[in-house]
Write a structure and sequence with these properties.
With 123 residues, the protein is α/β, with parallel strands linked by helices. The protein has a single domain, classed as STAS domain (Transcription Regulator spoIIAA, 2-Layer Sandwich). Helices cover 37% and strands 28% of the residues. The protein is built from four helices and five strands. The chain has a five-stranded mixed β-sheet, sandwiched between helices. α1 packs parallel to α2 and α2 runs parallel beside α3. The longest helix has 13 residues. The model has no long low-confidence stretch (mean pLDDT 81).
Length: 123
Amino acid sequence: MPISLDIDHQKQLITATADGEVSSQDLQHVIADIIAARAMQYRKLFDVTAARVSDASRIGEVAATVRLYAAKAFGDVGPVAVVIAPNVESPVARSFVALALAERPLRFFEDRAAALDWLNGLL
């Protein structure tokens, strides 16, 4: 899978790194894995600096999954730090965030270490 996922229950931290072509189905699998691990409330670091979405028109379906989870009150949706490539506009990542509409702290970063520092500051 083009997305590596690490769920650290002790630290309550999820790290997902996408590399290469990523489909909306790949993103759905990641969300399903996070839900199955009962970790949606954890802090999340999504590094998409080396990723390209192969079917950007379907990103709304992935966002709908997050909205449904939040709307059904299955639990909190934890803070998210999204790492994007420096000096590169990331319309798909920003679109996903806008469509997901979950109540949570969220920030974009161009530096992975800064993103992790921000997430750790939310403890």
